[in-house]
Amino acid sequence: MVGIGWFLAIILGALAGWIAEKIMNSSMGLLMNIVMGIIGAVVGNFLLTAIVGATLYGIIGQMIVAVLGACLLIAIVRGLRRA
To answer: What are the annotated GO cellular component locations (predicted)?
Structure first.
């Protein structure tokens, strides 16, 4: 996550994972919410930088990127489980 500390990254990751869990109608625990939120933020930032050439800055921008990235990860995991 761009421009924020580790502690805030964990908090935002947990919140983003929880929001993505609710959006995708999934059932995960707190630890998986944190992991999915943080990895989702990394994946989201990578994709956004690759496609647009920049990423969203600030806490709200990073939250949006993290939620979208976590939703993408949940969708990928669901697709892999079905295959």
So the answer is: plasma membrane
